[in-house]
Structure formats: C-alpha cells, structure tokens
Amino acid sequence: MKKIILTILALLSLGGFYLYTQSSHTEDVHDHSEHKEESHESHEGHGHDEDDGDDHSDDHGKDGDSHDEHGHESHEDEDSHDDHGHKDEHGHGDEHEEGKTEIEPEHAKQAGVVLSKAQGGTISQNVSLTGQIILNSNRSADVKARFTGAVKSVKVELGQKVTKGQVLATVESNESLQVFNVTAPISGTILKRNTNIGNLTSDDPMFTIVDLSKVWAKFHIFPKDTNQIKEGQSVKVHTLGNVEKEATSTIKMLLPTADALSQTYIAIVELDNENSDWRPGMTVEGDVAVSQQNATIIVSESAIQTMEDQTVVFVESNNSYEMRPVKTGKTDNENIEIVSGLNEGESYVSQGSFIVKADILKSGAAHEH
Question: What gap in Å lies between CA 173 and CA 145, rounded to an integer?
Fold first, then answer.
C-alpha cells in the first residue's frame, strides 16, 4: 500500500513539472513574439525616418547650397588672388613703370653716375690728322767750344737737366794753353753728349740742350683737307693706346714745304709739357675744328644709349631715372645735338649711362618674373 501511495505521488510530481515546463515555454514564445513585434515596430520606426527623406533631402540641398556658396567664395578668393598677383615678390607690381628705375644718390655716386643740366652749345665739324711729337726747334741749343783745344773735364751726363750758365765742361786752349769753361746757353735737358775727356774740340757740337717744357706735334695734312686747315684753328691732341693723354691747343704754323715721302703738308701744334706727358717720338692724333655750329641742346657723347631700338638718354628727377627717347642731330667727337626729346635745364646722366641702362633692364626682368 505504501508503495502505491509513493508511486501516485511521483506521478503527480511529474505531471506538475510538465505543466510548469509547458507554461514556461508558452511564456518564452509569447516573449519572443512580443520581441519580434517590438523589433518590427522599431524597424518600421526606422523606416519612417527614412520616409522623411524629403526633410533629409532638403537638408542635403541646404548643404549643397552651402557648398555652392563656399565655392563662390573660393572663386572670389581666386579673383582676389589674381588681383594680388599683379605685384611680384620684389614689390614692383603695378607700381613698376617701364623704362624707369630708382637709385639712391650715394649708390649712384659710387657707381660712377654723373648728372649734368641740358643746355645749348656748339657742335664742331672736325678733320682728324695723324702726327708725331717732335722737339721744339725754337727751344734747343747746340753747344760748341769757343776755342780749339783738349777737353780737360766733362761735368754733365746724358739726360741731365741743367740751368742757363751752368758749367758743362772745361777745355785747354791750344793757343793760350789756358783752361776755359763751356757753359749752358739755355736751361733744359742734355739730349746729346758728343765729347769725352781728352777729345779735341772742333766745329761739331759738344752737347745738345733741349727745353722740353714745350714740344711740338707735327701733323700731316692730306691734299683733300688743305683748304679746310688754317693757322689758329683749335686742335684736340690725344695719344693712342689704353692710357690716353689729351690736350687742346691751336695750329701754330703751316710749313711752306711738303713732306717729300708722303706728299702731305705739315701743321705744327705747340703743347705745354711741364709734366713731361708728351715725349718726342710718340704717335698722336689731332682733331681740328674746321667749323662750329650752335645747337639749342647738346649732351655729352657718353650720355647716349640704345634701348628697344631707340636712341635714348636718362633723365633724373628725385632719384628716379627715366628712359627718354630722343632725336639726335649734328655730332662731333665730344658732344651730340638733341633735336627733340630733352628740354633745356633737365637733369640727365652725362656719364655712367650704361649703369642706369643695366639697372632698368634688371628691374624690368624682375617685374616679368
């Protein structure tokens, strides 16, 4: 009986466990179903947000408009950049003017730039001659002994400078057997010494003395130019070579004879030579001013430059140098007539114009860069 009761209780327990298990399963299924519905509703809610795409599209459109506005502003920035691009890194920009530059006075002076005022003057028509420095025949002396005799002493050397009255040598007379002095008749330089101790004097010069403080330039005139060359005309004499010496004088005389070898006429020009710049034997050239004409404006030859296939000078104002095209007229070896392009009184570069030209070209290249 007891076994039966225990069996019944065991069966009851199993039935209750089954019912509890089924009930739990049903609740889990219900919970899962609710979870699925909630998930579906959540999904539908999310889908509803997507359905609000009109708003999203509008927002996106606003973003697009913002982007367009940004692009427009960028374009304006580019335009601004283009405006800024008119000035280069050197600061020339639109302020740079073609054919113009600025140079500080101290820099210009150090570079050798010299300014002059444009003014009137004369233009000379010249004839160029070739010649040579010779001794001044009016300033030389051949020194002889007054009596025939033996030379007892010689007091001077070749090339020595002497003064008038200075003793040059002593001679013992053959007739009186007395010793007498041979003295210098002029001041100058011993150019020749033709005697020594023990020599007998004769009619030949013992010494030649030349005053070299003034010398002659002997020029040859070709027959085609003889009608233009006159005594008294101005002559600019200059040496040849790298170290040039220059002096201005006049034609002192025209010799009445012709040179037998070259068949040219001879013009003599006297030159001051206190500093011994002109040495006999030097080859020289002479520019004879055969006529002169007045000009309203003249500039020095060194002022003229060529830029952009134009003849120009550089006009200065307040440290600014401007290229000025000009028209030139008559010219000589020193000055050039300005027919137009430059006014009287304007300051122009008379020396060192090539320096200003180089600076303008440099500024122009920097502006293009």
Answer: 10
| Cβ-based neighbours of 161, under 8 Å, separated by 6 or more | 187, 188, 189, 190
Tokens 């050239």 belong to residue: 285
Lowest mean per-residue pLDDT among 83-97, 129-143, 171-185, 223-237:
83-97
| More confident site: 2 or 343 | 343
CA distance 114 to 300: 11
Q: Please tell me the CATH code under which domain 140-210 is placed.
A: 2.40.50.100
The architecture (CATH level 2) of 125-135+213-292 comes to Beta Barrel (2.40)
Whole-angstrom CA distances from 7 to 13, 126, 137, 344 are 10, 161, 178, 148
Residue (of 185, 233, 232) closest to 208 by Cα position: 185
Two tokens, residue 224? 């085609």
CATH of domain 97-121+294-368: 2.40.420.20
What's this model's pTM, rounded to 2 decimal places?
0.59
* Contact by Cβ (8 Å): 119, 344: yes
Structure tokens given for 288: 């004879």
What six digits make up the tokens of 52? Answer: 């609000």
Nearest to 360 by CA among 310, 292, 301: 310
pLDDT digits (tens, 9 = 90+) for 36-60: 344 444 434 444 444 444 444 444 4
Distance between CA atoms of 362 and 301, rounded to whole angstroms? 24
Tokens of 324: 């000025």
Query: 101 - beta bridge partners?
Result: 321
Is it the case that residue 138 has pLDDT exceeding 50? yes
> Which DSSP symbol is given to 104?
-
**What is the 3-state composition of the chain as percent helix, strand, coil, each rounded to the nearest 5?**
30, 40, 30
Show me where the domains of the chain are located: 97-121+294-368, 125-135+213-292, 140-210
Could you tell me how many helices (H) and strands (E) the chain has, helices first? Answer: 4, 21
- Please give the DSSP secondary-structure letter assigned to residue 39: H
